[in-house]
Design a protein that fits this description.
The protein is mainly beta. About 10% of the residues lie in helices and about 45% in strands. The strands form twelve sheets. Strands 33, 36, 37, 39 and 40 form a five-stranded antiparallel beta sheet that branches. A four-stranded antiparallel beta sheet has the order 1-3-6-5, with no helix packed on it. The longest helix has 16 residues.
Length: about 550
């Protein structure tokens, strides 16, 4: 006990005599206050710290901390003063001083370390109680020491998780390897060192990965009989040979490469070390499907925007010729004729040769659900726009000006053809943003003769862009179409669609398709609103339209 009293007296004397310099200027009147000026550390050593704060936060003074004691190392000053203490393998206590310089003030922190006791004569000391590892993993060193009667014994080492491998153990160091973490979640495990009944443990914390497992295919639109080769990547690493590829619906592993013998859409995912990729869709198309239009600017995502206009009319509508004349003027105006695509719903009278059941469904949607169609003729804009126009051309221009955009973030490229009694449409949707899309394909017909009531020019008896059918099943409450699905940011999704030619069509040579894509729009309570449209005649193709 006598030695202890002398030791304590030395600490007290240290702080009485060395707490600060002789004077300080008013300019640097700030001082440091510590949570403790005596830090007690056990014989096993390890990391230690002391909290401080400045009485003046804007003093502009720096803080430096140093020591002459060899058993204290790695001193850092941030929001705390932190340092590492080596293990004390002797029974004697020991003392060190950390000098903290703050302007003209010098503060002394005493580090008091206990000696080993007879009751715990053998100790395993691991200075690094936590090892933080990145998701990529790798090989690491863990240093340790054994004190007491077992000091010459190499401890047994084990890991609590199979993603940690103990490579080697020598008299002072454990070498271990951490596998790559492909999951996004952080994971923890421990390494335990043991000698007889004495153990010590350190925690291994591995961060989650920001990379993901991705399933790719050399083509997502193969023809029947064409093989598809899949690749699985993680970051920049090809992990195909270490992964499984599965059918999304049956969860059965598939061969790679794989050849498809039926037309249709298939879905697959990859799995690596328990982590799944996102689903990859493969749209198997018939050999007669038209080729997808080439992308003339693959790096661009600034598309021309064409809104959807629907003219509601009929051959027995006496005022509809005025709308026909107004739209003819708009279509010939170079300032407006490239900002929309027009479809015409003949739903005023059932005797109209250009009418169809789809035209009536479209009418009832705008009339009963959106409530913007209150008479004939009426011009509606997109799917959710809460206004419409009559034949007054100034009102038409006003609505076009409201909806016009310099560019759009998504578009659809289209190729279409007749194959027997059906129409095949190859469409590619390219999106700058990650979004969920819906689509519809309207089948339109040109040059339909129908005597127009109150026509005052002969061309008014020839009707164009008449809605004859729809790929999607529409209803009076929803005409936004079918699910295209989720598309990742800055990517392109390609699909092939087939639709029968209805027997109401008069001349197949006058057919064309209008493809409309839609996405949720916060302006309209997240209802699906038109994003873009593309018009394509059968036997032709229309590539992505980019802004100049």
């Amino acid at each position: 006990m006598r030695i202890f009293y002398l030791f304590a007296a030395f600490v007290a004397t240290l702080f009485v005599g060395c707490s600060s310099g002789d004077s300080q200027s008013e300019e640097h009147a700030s001082e440091l206050i510590f949570s403790s000026t005596v830090i007690t550390v056990g014989a096993e050593g390890g990391p230690a710290e002391v909290v401080y704060f400045e009485t003046s936060a804007d003093s502009g003074l720096t803080i430096e901390a140093t020591t002459t004691s060899e058993w204290i190392s790695n001193i850092t000053v941030e929001d705390k003063i932190k340092f590492d203490v080596e293990a004390n393998d002797t029974p004697a206590q020991r003392l060190a001083v950390i000098d903290v310089v703050y302007g003209s003030n010098v503060y002394n922190l005493a580090v008091q370390q206990e000696g080993i006791t007879e009751e715990s004569e053998t100790k395993i000391i691991i200075p690094q109680r936590k090892v933080e590892v990145t998701a990529t993993g790798g090989t690491f060193d863990l240093f340790y020491s054994v004190s007491g009667s077992m000091a010459s014994v190499t401890p047994e080492v084990s890991a609590s998780a199979d993603w940690i491998t103990i490579d080697s153990v020598d008299a002072s160091k454990v070498v271990f390897t951490v596998d790559k973490n492909v999951a996004s979640a952080e994971r923890k495990a421990s390494i335990t060192l043991s000698c007889d009944d004495v153990t010590a443990k350190t925690t291994i914390v591995q961060s989650g990965s920001t990379d993901t497992v991705v399933l790719l295919a050399d083509t997502t639109t193969p023809h029947v009989g064409e093989p598809v080769t899949f690749t699985v990547v993680y970051g920049s690493e090809d992990i195909t040979s270490k992964s499984g590829i599965y059918d999304y619906y049956t969860h059965q592993e598939i061969p790679n490469p794989m050849t498809f013998d039926e037309v249709g859409e298939r879905a697959f995912y990859a799995e690596h070390e328990g982590v799944r990729s996102k689903v990859l869709s493969v749209n198997v198309i018939s050999a007669s499907a038209p080729d997808f239009p080439a992308d003339n600017d693959p790096e661009s995502y600034d598309f021309k925007y064409r809104m959807l206009l629907i003219e509601h009319t009929g051959t027995e509508c006496p005022y509809c010729p005025y709308m026909m004349e107004s739209l003819k003027i708009v279509e010939e105006n170079p300032s407006y004729n490239d900002c929309f695509n027009l479809a015409v719903a003949h739903s005023y009278n059932s005797s109209d040769p250009a009418t169809s059941s789809v035209a009536y469904t479209v009418r009832y949607y705008y009339q009963k659900t959106l409530k913007v169609l209150t008479g004939f003729p009426t011009l509606t804009f997109n799917y959710q726009y809460p206004d419409s126009a009559g034949s007054n051309i100034s009102y038409i221009y006003r609505h076009l000006d409201t909806l016009k955009k310099e560019k759009q973030s998504a578009a659809v490229a289209v190729a279409a053809k007749i194959d027997g009694d059906k129409i095949i449409v190859s469409a590619s949707l390219k999106s700058k943003e990650a979004r969920h899309y819906k689509f519809n394909i309207f089948l339109l017909e040109d040059n339909i003769y129908g005597s127009q009531s109150n026509a005052y020019e002969s061309w008014m008896n020839i009707h164009h862009n008449a809605i004859r059918d729809s790929y999607s099943v529409l209803s009076n409450s929803d005409i936004t179409g079918s699910e295209w699905g989720y598309i990742s940011a800055e990517s392109t999704s390609s699909k092939v669609f087939e639709m029968a030619i209805p027997n109401t069509v008069i001349r197949r040579s006058e057919l064309k398709v209008l493809v409309v894509i839609a996405a949720q729009d916060s302006q309209y309570n997240n209802k699906y609103e038109v994003v873009n449209t593309t018009m394509c005649k059968l036997g032709a193709s229309v590539p992505f339209e980019y802004v100049d």
